[in-house]
Description:
The chain is an alpha+beta fold. The chain is about 40% helix and about 15% strand. Helix 2 packs across helix 4. The model is unreliable at about 25-40 (pLDDT under 50).
Amino acid sequence: MALSPTSRKLVAFRTRIGVASILVALLSAGLGHAETQVGVAPRAGEIDAIPAGRSVQDRVDEIRRRVQQAVVYPDAARRRGIHGTTRIQFEVNAEGHAKEVTTVASSGSDLLDAAAKQSAVDAAPLPYVFGRLRIPVVFELKGRARE
Length: 147
């Protein structure tokens, strides 16, 4: 029995819908899909691309802490009562040194901005993190509440 052109189109359409439904079901079940959940051991034959050790967030928090601890408050700024927050941006190279340190948001004081950039350099060695980081460096005088 021969199918009319309209019937052939209907059969082809239903076939495409059936194939699409199968693909959706496979993807929903995690088959044919190379996604690995964080914190779950890889299945046999899979390669875990997540390095062992501390998470990226833990390393970024450590970098923030070390940079803040490395701050040397400029004497001239302290005498003048200058305080504020400088946002800096930099990369950490494989040796743990801050590279290409720039100011992305000024504290309003060149003294504090320069000290913030220097603190990133002085904080080495830093844990490696791929990409550019933006972190705040806070300068506050004792006895002053944080802004």
